């Protein structure tokens, strides 16, 4: 598997994969091309035999000088359980540390139990919100009305 | 009119305005909350009597150290022709210059003639693309299949 930085031209390959990998949910609007143009030294693709099987889109926070944020991570459904996600996250953690930052944040939905379990396994902690959903602390209406979110933070060593 | 930096809590006010101001088009997914959290010192709202009548969401490019990018600008339909957009752009141009950068980029659809005319009036130049639509140079399939885009750049003095 090859992990490399994304290029602007990857957008046209990755954008349609999003709706496909998320089981047809209309998700691709959440990842506009600008991330491939203006944040491409902190964003990665994983390829096997030239086929994109995973990607991670992240950036260094402009507002918080010790933080970085992971916006979107996707792994091809046929290639899960292959540590592709883990390798992408570790690549990102390394570039964050190289940039002198030590906090990585990301956000997920309370319904996404797989994502919650995955982030905990990857060493993220759940931030104390203002509501509980199925025993998990969430921020109510974080992403708009009825859009509660679980906020994660990981401190890098 | 008061222009101020956006806060995280503005997200819940601005997000529903997007679909409203864009005539019901489902646009709000293109502006996720992260812009209000991680790029809030280069993003602005305009208020009249405490009501949000405009906003500009922009950032300093992480990949291109002399560039900044405007992601989203909206003005309340009832308050157009009041130079609200112009004031928001100028505020952004100032913060870009304060950060030692001198190129501002943004992107629009070829169908959006009003936006094209507006950007030209604001001193943006159209970048030479690979196709022409109604006499305007565009980048074919820039934002995905059949999603041609006009790319603008403005050099700040």
From TrEMBL, chains A, B:
Signal peptide: none annotated. This is N-acetyltransferase domain-containing protein. PROSITE patterns: GNAT. The lineage of its organism: Bacteria, Bacillati, Bacillota, Bacilli, Bacillales. InterPro entries: AcTrfase_GNAT_prd, Acyl_CoA_acyltransferase, GNAT_dom. It comes from Lederbergia ruris. Residues 1-157 form the N-acetyltransferase domain. It holds the Pfam family Acetyltransf_1.
């Amino acid at each position: 598997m090859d992990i490399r930085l994304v290029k602007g031209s990857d957008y046209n390959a990755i954008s349609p994969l999003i709706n496909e990998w998320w089981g047809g949910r209309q998700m691709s609007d959440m990842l506009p091309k600008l991330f491939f143009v203006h944040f491409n030294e902190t964003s990665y693709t994983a390829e096997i035999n030239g086929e994109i099987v995973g990607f991670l889109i992240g950036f260094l926070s402009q507002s918080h000088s010790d933080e970085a944020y992971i916006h979107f991570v996707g792994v091809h459904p046929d290639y899960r359980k292959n540590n592709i996600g883990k390798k992408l996250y570790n690549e990102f953690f390394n570039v964050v540390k190289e940039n002198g930052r030590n906090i990585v944040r990301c956000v997920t939905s309370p319904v996404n139990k797989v994502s919650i379990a995955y982030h905990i396994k990857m060493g993220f902690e759940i931030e104390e919100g203002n509501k509980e959903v199925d025993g998990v602390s969430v921020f109510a209406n974080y992403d708009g009305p009825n859009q509660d979110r679980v906020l994660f933070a990981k401190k890098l060593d």
